[in-house]
Design brief:
Helix content: 55-70%
CATH class of the largest domain: Mainly Alpha
Order of helices and strands: HHHHHHEEHHHHHHH
Strand order of the largest sheet: 1-2
Number of domains: 2
Structural class: mainly alpha
Oligomer: single chain
CATH topology of the largest domain: MetI-like fold
């Protein structure tokens, strides 16, 4: 505890951080709530002195907007597909890494590299991997398709190339590409957290299981998972929060169109919906959509907390 006579020094040291939080975090949140309840609020018109009435019209317009359901569906689909898959893969990889002593540090570095790489750059690499580069006619006038790396692998095993992200591609193919990318991009952080949790588990539990001759599968389900449950709960909750805010990964692969050229906006998400409203100088609608997204994330987080109370062992 800081002596009462010295508390002013503590507040002095904290003052810069508090001021920055108030200016760049607290005030924007308050202002977002304010704009959401001002009918048809537009920043440029407000700067010109136009007055806006108080109401819930912005929320009604967001819900009635023809692409709102599609954005919400894309967001939920990507979130509920990627979070369980990435969590399970991260758990298995973390357990494997924890069991490997030779080159463990090097492997940890390799798995962590995507976390420190720019998301847009990674998205461009994935776009190139799934892309169909082009087509040309051969010597016998047959159409030859120059496929990307993924299609080359499919054709090597006897399959036919798939139009993943180009003109005429199907919705399921676009979702598959995004799921693979998001899962791959989410693995490093989850592996790091789970690996840290594994290394903190008392080895006596495993020694006792070895003495009793307990099978590895039962050791995994009865010792590793229960003792790692707080870390699993953390990565699941943060995964859902991050999943509902998905945006940059789609831009990295499909660009600002958020979908193939002939289906612009097909994979648009709630965050993309907010950015679209901001680009149209409709801050009221963007703020209302942001509060709706906040409410969805809050409900999902509260539900996860209720599940965690029953299954997490501290």
């Amino acid at each position: 505890m800081v002596d009462n006579k010295q508390q002013w020094k503590a507040w002095l040291y904290l003052a810069p951080a508090i001021v920055l939080l108030l200016v760049f975090t607290v005030w924007p949140i308050i202002n977002t709530v304010r704009m959401a309840f001002l009918e048809n609020y537009k920043g440029l018109e407000a700067a010109a002195g136009v007055q806006f009435s108080f109401g819930v019209g912005n929320f009604l317009k967001v819900i009635k907007y023809n692409r709102f359901i599609q954005c919400l569906q894309n967001t939920c689909l990507l979130c509920f597909l990627t979070v369980p898959i990435s969590t399970m893969l991260a758990l298995l990889i973390a357990v494997a890494l924890n069991s490997i002593k030779f080159l463990q540090k090097g492997l940890q570095t390799i798995f962590f590299l995507p976390y420190v790489t720019n998301s847009i750059a990674i998205g461009m690499v994935f776009a190139a991997m799934f892309n169909i580069v082009g087509s040309f006619y051969g010597t016998e006038n047959e159409l030859i398709v120059t496929a990307g790396i993924i299609n080359n692998v499919i054709e090597f095993f006897g399959g036919t190339h798939i139009n993943w992200i180009n003109v005429g591609s199907e919705y399921w193919a676009n979702i598959f590409v995004m799921t693979v990318y998001i899962v791959w991009n989410a693995l490093p952080f989850k592996i790091l957290v789970l690996l840290g949790g594994l290394q903190g588990i008392n080895k006596q539990y495993y020694d006792a299981a070895k003495v009793d001759g307990t099978p590895r599968r039962r050791v995994f389900t009865r010792i590793t998972v229960p003792l790692l449950s707080p870390m699993l709960a953390y990565v699941v909750i943060t995964g859902f929060i991050g999943g509902f805010k998905e945006y940059t990964s789609i831009v990295g692969i499909f660009g600002e169109n958020m979908g193939p050229p002939d289906a612009a906006g097909r994979l648009n998400t709630m965050v993309g919906f907010i950015y679209d409203a901001l680009s149209q100088n409709n801050q009221g609608r963007a703020s209302a959509a942001a509060l709706i997204l906040f409410g969805i994330i809050l409900l999902v987080t509260l539900f996860n907390n209720q599940v965690i109370k029953k299954h997490v062992h501290y």
